[in-house]
Structures are given as C-alpha cells and as structure tokens.
Amino acid sequence: MEDILYLYLPIAEIRINLLLLIGIGLFVGTLAGMFGLGGGIIAVPLLAALQIPPSVAVATATNQMTAASFSGYLAYARRGCVDYKLGAFLILGGIIGSSLGMMILKRLIELGRADSFISLSFMIFLTVTCFLTLKDIIVTTYYQIKKTNPPKPRPTALMRLTLPIKANFVSAKREISIFAPILIGLVGGIFVAFMGIGGSLVMIPAMLYVLRVSEKFTAGTSHLQIIFTTIICTIMHALTSKNLDIILSVILIIGTVIGAQIGAILAKNIRQDIMRILFAVVILLLSINVGYNLLTEPDCMYEFEVLKK
Amino acid sequence: MFFVHIITSFFLLLSLAEAGYDITLDLSKDTLVKNAEFKNEIIKISGLTNQPYDLILKVTGPSLSYRMSKRESQLGLWVKKDKLTIPAADSYLYISSNKPLNTITDDYTLHMLGLNGKVFKERIVKLDSQQNFDVEKEFCFYSEQKGLYLQRPGKLETIAGRFYRDEIPIPERAASGTYEIVVYGFLNGVLVAQQSNRFAIKKQEIYSDLDKLYGKQPVLYALLSIAIALISGFIAAYVFAPHQKINETK
Questions:
Q1: Using the beta-carbon criterion (under 8 Å), do A15 and B218 form an inter-chain contact?
Q2: Nearest CA in chain B to A74
Q3: Is residue B6 situated within a structural domain?
C-alpha cells in the first residue's frame, strides 16, 4: 500500500512520496495565486529539502511556475484584473534585463564574485522590500485607528523623472512614461538571470511602490509577465542543464494549478490591507530564511552536484 | 547440511579447475530496475577460488562528472566560491575484504588498484596534485555521507578457504548505469588472480524513454513540459470558473 504512494523521478533519480509533492504544489500554488508570485523561491528550498538535487529543483520549479502563473492569470483575467499594456512593457524590459543580466553574470563569474554579489544584493533587496511593505502596513493601520484617510502618496523618484512617451495605463489611472515599466522590467529581468526566480518579487513591490499601480491589477499583471519569463527559462534549462524532470513537474503542477485557483479566490475575499500584511509576512519569512542561510556557518563546506551528460 | 555444502564445493572446484579459472564470480542478479519500488537493494555475490586467497572485492558505479563548490566567509556571509568541475569520478564504490586491507597487501598495490580512495578518473586540470588530493578526499567523505561509498574490511565471508560470498548494498540514490565488480586474490601480499563481472541498474521503460527523449530532443521535451503546464493551468481555471463566478456574485 505504501509503495502505491511513491513514484520514481527519472531525472532526479530518486523515489518520492506522491502526496507530499502534491501538498507542496498546493501550498506554493495557493501563495502564488494570492500574491501573484511565481513560487519558485518557495518551491526550490522545499524540493531541495526532499533530497531532490538543487539543479533539478530549480529547472523543474520554473515549469511549475508557468502552470501556476497561467492558472492564476486566467483567474484574474476573467475578473478583468490584468493590465495588458503594462504587462507588455514589463515583458519587454524583462527580456532586455535578463539578456543584460546574463552578460553581467558571466563577467562576475569570471571575476569569481558572482555568488557573493548575488547573495548580498538579494538580501538587500528583500530587506528593502520588507521595510517598504511593513512601513506601508504601519501607516495604513495608523490611519485606520485614527479613522481618517491616509494622505495621497507622494510621487516616487521614477515618477518625478520626466521620461518621454507617456501613455495611459488602466491600472495606474493616469499617464506614465512607457520607460518606467520598461525600466522596472529590466531590473526584474536582471534578477531573473541572476537568481533564476520568476521576477515577481521585484515586479510586485515595484508596481505597488514605484509605479503606484492599483493593487487590484498587480497579481494578474505579474502572472502575465511570469508566463513569458518562465517559458523562456524552461527552454534554456532544457537545452543547457538538462535537469528538467517532467514527472516531478507534472505532479507539482497538479497541486499548483489547483492551489493557484484557491489562492485567487482567497485573494478576492480578503481585504486589501490584510493582503498587504500577509504579503509582508511572506517577504519577512523569505528574508529570514535567506539571511539565516547566508549568516550561519554551514555544516559542510563542500557541495557536490552531478552534472548531466 | 555441512556434508551437502562440502560435496557442492567439491564439484564446483572441479568445474573451476576444468574451466581454468583461479576465481569464479557469480551474482544473484545482473539487472536492477529503477522504479517506484526501488529502495535499498542487495546483490548477493559468491564464488570459488582454487587456492585459499586473501580476497578484496571492489564494486564501482558509472563514472559521472560533478560540480564542486566550497563555501567561504566573505564580509560575514557564507557564499559559494571555487566552483570546479570534476570531469569523471566513480558514482558508487564498495570495497570489502576477508581481512583488513593493510594486512592483505602493501599501500602501493592498494593505490595501483584504486583501493585507497582513488576515485577520480581524471585529475582537475586547474588544481595541483595536493589540491586534487584534498578535493578527492572531500568527495569521498561526501559520498560516504550519502551512503554511496562503503568500505567494509573483514565483511567478505570465506568458507573452508575456497568458497566466498558477500552482499553488495545498492542504495536508493545509486545512479543508473553499468556497475563493475572485481575480485582480487592475493597470496602473501602478491596479486595472483582476479575475476570481474558486471551488473546494470536500468530505468523502467517509460522512465528510460523519457530520459532518451530528453537526451535526443531537449527542445521537444521542454515544449512537452510547457504544454502540460499550460493545459493543466487552463483546465484548473475552467474547473474553478463557477466558483469564481459564485464569489463574484456574492
């Protein structure tokens, strides 16, 4: 009976519990659906904890993100919560950024500074995002207690810049230069190339705090952008590392797509300020996890990983 | 029972002499199939010798390349540095003997036969010989922790000086491929006989087919994975559509 619940992963070359994988998929999918995240940053450490080689976990999680984002995107698109124009410029910036990121990464690897640079920048980025989100929560809660409306947010540095070619975005309810989302997409793309994450961790806070986009549109637009990024990454992984495990991917996807729909329903029924608090908690937990891994002395100084032929 | 064993051994010895071998080597299985039921397996080996040799058994798994990284503290952060590629190393190693290895033969012979932790098939070009040795030592330690490298001196059982047997433990994480088994026979510290055999760990048909598809047509494999992801996402969105509408009308 116990063996029925196990399946063999041909690329990872291990047997694994089916229910555990579906559970991970559901958990990651729910978070992805709620916050518009791809989920890779959560899925990869969980899979690695199950003894799945990290390179297989990264490549497979990328494909899982495609499913989560597509499922989430359809749910938000049905409610008209996707800003396609904004999404298109984010994707354009993302493509330029990921190409640029690959070049910078190559140079950093040559200099032997890639890992320290990536780790440090990732930690700073998460801390800043966490600070911004927490500040936002405190301000919102303060004005709720005072029962007054919070002051209108001041325009951000990027908004104050007089960039050319302005366009009206449905999600921002005002004119923004098309270069603003392209720039944000570019920074997100660099992170995608550096860390192999979908980029939503950059895009969502940037949409909220830099472009001042309505929260209603962030998750759906982020999902739209992630679909393209992860499809490109999946093909790249398949061609280079050859670590994409299709069986693992299918099982994770079953849980993920259901989770993404549950997440989208939850997001609709939870108040926006509560959603922000939950998002801040997720970012805070991620920051603690990344910080802990970077600051504590590892048990083993050497790591070995099989390279596929 | 003992009488039967003696008679069997006698006839086996006769066949051994007739065949002209000094050592025979038989396996309980020559193929293991990797699937959902593949846990920690055992392959039993047995054989006969025409003289009461000191025996060393060595089993090596398919040679694979690895990426190694070392963690170092930089600005108080533990980051990966010195990423290196190990071009070829044994993915599995099992060594057993009927006596402690150093009482069977000298260090030089052990080194020549790869019985003293020499698992790298090619040296890492970037490193000098001392650094190669250090990395090899770390690799052996890592593989021991994973249960892929095992040394069991004294575990190989000999009966009446001529019959020997042992059990090779194959852990769940063992790589698929061909495994080489060699039995060395020593007399007074000198290698006088050896016999080899092999077994395979294969992936079950569907898993093997997927593996082959990935190897030959990685783009098709990737597109298949993406198609599954998109179709699954679409089906889930379709199935959950009524729930979304109910929520919208509330």
A1: no
A2: B237
A3: no
Residue B131 covered by a domain: yes
CA distance A8 to A166: 53
Expressed as residue numbers, the domain containing B165 is: 21-204
ipTM above 0.85, yes or no: no
Same domain, B222 and B142: no
The residue among B172, B240, B243, B245 with the most chain A CBs within 10 A of its CB, best to mutate, is B240
* Contact predicate A76/A219, CB 8 Å: yes
Chain B positions touching A73 (Cβ under 8 A) are 233
Size of interface A-B (CB pairs under 8 A): 203
CA distance A71 to chain B (A): 4
Q: How far is B27 from chain A (nearest CA, A)?
A: 24
Q: Would you place residue B145 in the very low, low, confident or very high pLDDT band (cuts 50, 70, 90)? A: confident
Q: Is the entire prediction scored with pTM above 0.80?
A: no
Residue % of chain B over a pLDDT of 90: 31
Domain count for chain B:
2
Given a cut of 50, is residue B17 above it in pLDDT?
no
Q: How far is A223 from chain B, CA to nearest CA, in Å?
A: 12
- Other Cβ atoms closer than 10 A to A306: 18
CB atoms within 10 A of CB A142: 11
Residues 6+ apart with CB under 8 A from B116: B101, B107, B110
Determine the pLDDT at residue A308: 64
Same domain, B165 and B227: no
Residues B208-240: tens digit of each pLDDT:
888 888 888 888 999 999 999 999 988 888 887
